[in-house]
Design the sequence.
């Protein structure tokens, strides 16, 4: 349910955010949801069709993959 509420808020508020700043705002929304243990699949299903959130999720998952790769490389060195 929190992702549904966040989606509704995002839909209403994003029109007040300049198009230049929307990607950064979407990153913040995604990070807040993830930090509050909202599943990525739940975010995807509640924010269907929103390009800014989709890009933010893609960036988040790429960053996580890079962090895991970096961690595994560091572990292998020891």
Sequence:
């Amino acid at each position: 349910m929190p992702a549904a509420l966040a989606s509704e808020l995002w839909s209403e508020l994003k029109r007040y955010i300049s198009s230049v700043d929307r990607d950064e705002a979407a990153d913040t929304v995604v990070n807040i949801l993830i930090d509050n243990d909202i599943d990525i699949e739940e975010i995807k299903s509640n924010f269907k069709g929103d390009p800014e959130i989709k890009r933010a999720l893609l960036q988040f998952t790429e960053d996580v993959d890079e962090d895991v790769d970096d961690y595994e490389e560091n572990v292998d060195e020891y």
